[in-house]
Write a structure and sequence with these properties.
3-stranded antiparallel beta sheet; alpha+beta; 3-stranded mixed beta sheet; about 170 residues
């Protein structure tokens, strides 16, 4: 590492600290020639795949857009920021783990739906309605029925309230 003050080629690491999530290392350094101190920050440089959009365009993967999609689906839902961050991290991990250089946006959408299904059923249905282009109420009902069959009573409130039985007269 070159010294930013005198451009000497030899610097010594005085202290290293890793962030809580383990993705960044901050190093305190000192130049052997001039004695000046400075900090460097190291991050992982992992290449994420290019996203192939439905219309054929290609875009760089953007975790901020991913987070915005989660935020829209989970707006005003009882899901903590930490849970959303963990879900975003899980999707990014799945994208990296795929090993693909190019990934269709549909596949990323499936990763998102998998995480939303675990987090919040209402958020899942919101996202699914846009992702799968629901056309009418029947599409919603079909997705709700599928969700109820696949994940009955996972500790979340029911998606559709059962009608109360009619009161009996005496």
């Amino acid at each position: 590492m070159h010294c930013p003050f005198c451009q000497h080629v030899d610097t010594r690491v005085l202290d290293s600290r890793v962030t809580e999530d383990g993705t960044v290392i901050r190093r305190r350094r000192m130049c052997e020639a001039c004695g000046e101190r400075f900090s460097t920050v190291e991050t992982m440089d992992l290449k994420l795949p290019v996203v192939i959009k439905n219309d054929g365009r290609r875009e760089a993967f953007d975790a901020r857009k991913l987070r915005a999609g989660f935020d829209r689906a989970l707006q005003k839902r009882p899901v903590s920021d930490g849970q959303v961050e963990a879900a975003v991290h899980a999707v990014v991990h799945a994208v990296r783990k795929s090993g693909e250089r190019e990934l269709p946006s549909r596949r990323i959408g499936e990763f998102v739906m998998e995480q939303l299904r675990k987090l919040d059923h209402v958020g899942y249905v919101r996202f699914a309605s846009v992702y799968r282009s629901f056309q009418d109420v029947a599409d919603f009902r079909e997705e709700l029925d599928r969700l109820e069959r696949e994940a009955p009573g996972e500790g979340q409130l029911p998606l559709l309230e059962e009608p109360a039985p009619p009161a009996r007269r005496r």
